[in-house]
Specification:
The structure holds 4 protein chains of 4 kinds. Chain A is mainly α. Chain A has helices spanning 8-40, 54-81, 84-116, 124-144, 149-181, 196-238. Chain A contains 6 helices and no strands. Chain A is globular and about 70 Å long. Chain B has a domain at 29-56. Chain B has helices at 2-8, 12-55. Chain B is rod-shaped. Chain D is 88% helix and 0% strand. The longest helix of chain D has 32 residues, at 45-76. The chains are: A mainly alpha, B mainly alpha, C alpha/beta, D mainly alpha. The A-B interface holds A 38-43, 48-50, 52-53, 56-57, 60, 95-96, 99, 102-103, 106-107, 110-111, 113-114, 209, 212, 215-216, 219-220, 222-223, 226-227, 229-230, 233-234, 236-237 and B 1, 3-4, 6-7, 10, 12-14, 16-17, 19-21, 23-24, 27-28, 30-32, 35-36, 38-39, 42-43, 45-46, 49-50, 53.
Chain lengths: 239, 56, 222, 221
Amino acid sequence: MIFKFANPLKFQKLTDSIQPFVSYLALILLILGLFFGFFMSPPDYLQGETVRIMYVHVPCAWFSLMIYSVIALCAVFAIVFKHTLAYIISRACAPIGACFTIATLLTGSIWGKPTWGTWWVWDARLTSELILLFIYIGLMIIHNSYDDKSKSDRYASILALIGVVNLPIIKWSVDWWNTLHQPASISKFSSPSIDSSMMVPLFIMTFSIFCFFISILLIRIKGEIIQRKIDVLRLNQLK
Amino acid sequence: MKNFLDFVNSGEHFSYVLSSYFIVFLILFLIFITSSIKTKKLEKEFASLSKNEAKK
Amino acid sequence: MVLEIISVCLKRNKRVIFNNFNLKLNKSQIMILIGENGAGKTSLLDLVAGVLEPEKGTIKINNISSKNLNSNKRDMYTYLSNKDALKENLTIEENLMMWSKISSNKFIETESNNVLDYFGLRNLRKNLVGNLSQGQRKKVTLSKLLLSKAKLWLLDEPFNSLDSKSVKKTIKLIYTHSKNGGSILLTNHIDLNFRNSKKITLVNSHSKLKKNKPTFHKWGDF
Amino acid sequence: MSEFKNLFQRELLINLKNFLVLFTFSSFFIISIMIFVFAFGSDFSAIDGLYKPIIWVILIFSITLVSEHFIYNDFFDGSLKELEFLGYSNELIIFCKSFVMWLLIIFTTFFLVPIFSIFFNISLKETLFLFFYIVFATPSLTLISVVSALFSIQLGRNKIIQFILVFPFYIPIVIFTTSSNNIQTTTNSHNSNFLILIGIFFITLPLCLFISRLIMRELNR
């Protein structure tokens, strides 16, 4: 795999060809998902129509975690092999992950309003999502706080390493804290054991948001590569 | 089709669902637009830089 | 062969400092590195001291590669970097006591007294290092050399901010050390004439770099 | 073992003679509790229930503030680099620094916490248990704050960034200390929460030492 992206030119051509295809696929799947979500699937007997928020909320939650694992994977890859592509990917992923976490938090609180009557509930998942947002903010701060790009990359990958090890501990301790703080709030919201008619739109929406994430990632990676080319040219002009 | 009609006139829930979809697509659209604008700006800058680099 | 640097390559924040650099230092030899600042004098001493890892090439101290040296490093060489590692809130005596404890794991009271005499710091020994002048602090760092038993000395600009009397003393110190078998590698930006010493000038990498158009063919050159 | 002894004596000598370290920690601790007292206004009954969380929050903030004194002076006057080229491994250096920091923190809280529990007429048993949990929770707190201090050396010693980076990693420790405190006082049976604290310590110890080795390699580059 590594040798396929052996040099930036080949990688650039590859991504340029894939990028429009993926974003159109995302649009098509989105329309399909919406159709299935609103037309084909029945409302939930307990929650009524608000269960349709799940088709958006659950994929965003999955992606906020998946993107952090992508960043962590690139961080490990970067520290071991010192490959600039890994630094570029982890730098490009951080803002997208933060946006997904913000989306999850907002939709989660909107979903909580009808079921619990308040906008914000210290539910285990929402709290750990909030902490994940702080980790993303920390990552983004480290990414942009150094003038020398290579130094900020290395420090950000080290921070990602700490985050990866601590994330399960945080999730587990928040779950434990939540059961202590508030008896297990049994609600459809916790683990939706849903029948097939709701599963289909969920997967279609997940796949469409995945394609959307890939296309944004490719755009940001291209921008990152060009940014570094400009830095090198500026450096040469300085000499 | 019946599901959609029940959904439309489901009163309070309709506004919650619609606003959450609106928020998610707004955020995704925002990040898509900002990153593509940033990339285009960088491309122009790089083109101009490499042009006068070649001129020198 | 006390110190051997074999074809070392080093790149520091996108600037090539050393490209296949070789150096040999044998017993009781004094070697002086001359070059403007930024030419890599301190980076070379950092390389030898193992603080910086070279991208290519190996460094041998007493024919042992510096990679598998660890705690016995401190008996092989003493490195005085340009930043004097003295704690401001401790007195001179305590600083030297700590240095000898860390570097050679033992501290003899009487030995430290005559060490202080060499640079005339005996009556100053109770003062905090914080309110010493820059020259006196340099003398304290140089008197660390008297306490250390290592054969190889790596000195980074030992003469700056010293008055002429103590410059002569340090030169005498270096000669006595090289006479009884020690070897010294020191960097200096002003040209001091040393008897039987080898001079190496490090050329600044800017001038070497020819103006080539940057091609982005490899991931490395981003 | 002699290496550890030398480094330990060196750190102890430096930090005990440096008055600023103890002063910053204890003065921040006292001042913030005073502010809490006046913030509560007249009804003093409310503070009895909230005494423990206040102590924990202030302890965390003062630990993060004090961690800077252990790292910056050594880095900026070159002795951190000197320890490295003397052959001491990075982990040992950082372990000795955080060990001494932990001792100083335990030493000061040992005096401060009873004083304040007398002020808020907290029973002796509760104070003992509180101090017992402080002894078990602060090792991992110090390790994390030392790593955050290492991070913020290169960031121009920016305190805000140090807090934002470190805030998510304090949360599990805080959760388990306060909850074990509450269970301890209500059921006063021996609960397993503080065992989880020890577990968390054994995770943070190798992680923080490994991370500080990576950062110290960056600092020299």
